[in-house]
Amino acid sequence: MIRTARHGDVHLITLDRPDRRNAVDGPMAEALAEAVGAAERDDEVRAIVLTGAGGAFCAGNDLKAMAAGDFPVPTPDGPPPMRVTRTPPAKPVVAAVEGYCFGGGFELALWADLRVASATAEFGTLNLAHGLPCLDGATVRLPRLVGQGRALDILLTARRVPADQALAYGLVDRLVDAGQALEGALELAGAVARLPVEARNAARRSVLEQWALPEDEAAGNEARLALGA
């Protein structure tokens, strides 16, 4: 249900359950965590692309599996349903999004550093319409990407956000033709992978770490990271 492949120094991870629009059950979440961990530990991997098979990214958590008790009962300190979303990825991740990107799948795309979407992509927290809360970071990462007002509009209506609106909101970084999301994401990840690693990683860490810091401390952190101090 999780496939991996190497494209030079870019590692591709594919959610491969197209009959369920790549909805994630417990074993698939564990396999995803293992695949991400393996890529993060591999010194030859300089960027990761995450995508879904069969014209969809991910329809979210498998509701049938949840009803059957396939997922552990969530707790504040336990792992989130998608397993990997509690902390930022150790290496740059680009999500390649075609079709459905809902619920936990949407949160998985938000976990990525960058998002390339095709014209078919649709985003949203449809889980809220079923009374299922966000547990994989949507309420934290979405406002930081698009602002509080737009985030609340998406969250509190549980509506579908089309690809062109997602681009206008800043939710999507690049918009491509239908069927071209993976190609676009591999191209973008390749550009990320080609940068000198130390300077690139310092810039990325500074961006990710600055949210919890006052501006002057964030500027100091930028300098420490840049100089390896």
UniProtKB/TrEMBL annotation:
Pfam (any one): ECH_1
Source taxon at top rank: Bacteria
Coiled-coil region list: none
Stored InterPro entries: ClpP/crotonase-like_dom_sf (IPR029045), Enoyl-CoA_hyd/isom_CS (IPR018376), Enoyl-CoA_hydra/iso (IPR001753)
Family: Belongs to the enoyl-CoA hydratase/isomerase family.
PANTHER family: ENOYL-COA HYDRATASE (PTHR43802), IP11341P-RELATED (PTHR43802:SF1)
Protein name: Enoyl-CoA hydratase/isomerase family protein
Record organism: Actinomadura nitritigenes
